[in-house]
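Sequence design from tokenized structure. All designs in this work follow the same two-part layout: the structure record, then the generated sequence. An example of the structure record is given first.
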């Protein structure tokens, strides 16, 4: 059926960060620099892992894919938000809104599963070190990455099912800087209560199950290391604490938003900005830039460029 026959809305109005003109310019400069930093550092990590032989291990293979997803997660809406800060009328087409919803859930779902895959890699490395090479083969790593992508796509498609057939006849104002599905679905000109419940269940199952798997994995790793040596325990605790920090900062806002997706809280917009804009920079800072092998490889690349 042609979309025009079921929907009169051709565009949505986005409510970006508000404030006077000077504050809008500050937001523009700040988020532009922040976005460029995200892209630069994450792509640098990807190029370093690809080009240097030292970090060619399953952990770094998964880390390079995490950095790539972070670039995608920060790109699906942030550039438009930055451009909209200079506009008086912040609008997005119906098709653009659907595209944002699709890519948002693809990248968020994919990153959730990739974080679980990275926790599984650390579990095998620490709890079953003698079998690590056999278990975490190249084929296994590729399967984990592809599985994360497939689950992200399936999650996104399952979310789009709730909205693509709905009629929209106004209002068309979305109280967010991007088309957030719970806010868009409320604008439909029909009763969406059942769809809201189904969407809530599907999203919460993915987010909460992934979060619990991560916490269980890291808990088992810490218990295993504690039984072996106090020195190893101190090092593992520092590393895993950083990993758990990233996981908590990524999952916390997501779970909070999806726990009450149809109630607007004053902090919802800030939380959305946090896990779509700020978290993609935390991953390279905690996972990669504190890693001696990554830093050494980056310095080697820099010295090669200077020499050439």
């Amino acid at each position: 059926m042609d979309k025009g026959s079921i929907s009169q809305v051709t565009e949505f109005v986005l409510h970006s960060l508000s404030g006077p003109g000077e504050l809008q310019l500050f937001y523009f400069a700040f988020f532009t620099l922040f976005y460029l930093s995200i892209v630069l550092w994450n792509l640098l990590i990807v190029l370093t892992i690809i080009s240097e032989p030292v970090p060619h291990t399953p952990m770094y293979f998964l880390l390079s894919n995490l950095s790539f997803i972070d670039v995608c997660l920060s790109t699906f809406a942030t550039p438009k938000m930055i451009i909209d800060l200079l506009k008086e009328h912040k609008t997005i087409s119906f098709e653009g809104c659907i595209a944002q919803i699709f890519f948002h859930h693809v990248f968020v779902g994919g990153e959730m599963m990739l974080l679980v895959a990275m926790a599984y890699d650390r579990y095998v490395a620490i709890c079953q070190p003698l079998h690590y090479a056999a278990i975490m083969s190249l084929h296994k790593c590729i399967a984990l990455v592809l599985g994360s992508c497939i689950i992200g796509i399936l999650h996104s498609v399952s979310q789009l099912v709730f909205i693509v057939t709905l009629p929209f006849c106004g209002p068309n104002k979305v109280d967010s800087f991007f088309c957030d599905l719970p806010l868009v679905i409320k604008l439909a000109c029909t009763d969406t209560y059942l769809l809201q419940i189904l969407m809530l269940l599907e999203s919460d199952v993915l987010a909460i199950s992934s979060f619990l798997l991560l916490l269980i994995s890291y808990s088992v790793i810490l218990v295993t290391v504690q039984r072996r040596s106090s020195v190893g325990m101190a090092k593992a605790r520092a590393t895993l604490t950083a990993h758990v920090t990233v996981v908590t900062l990524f999952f916390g806002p997501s779970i909070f938003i999806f726990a009450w997706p149809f109630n607007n809280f004053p902090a919802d917009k800030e939380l959305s900005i946090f896990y779509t804009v700020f978290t993609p920079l935390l991953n390279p800072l905690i996972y990669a830039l504190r890693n001696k092998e990554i830093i050494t490889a980056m310095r080697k690349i820099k010295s090669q460029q200077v020499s050439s």
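The beta strands are 11-14, 91-93, 173-174. We note this feature because it recurs in several other targets discussed in the main text.
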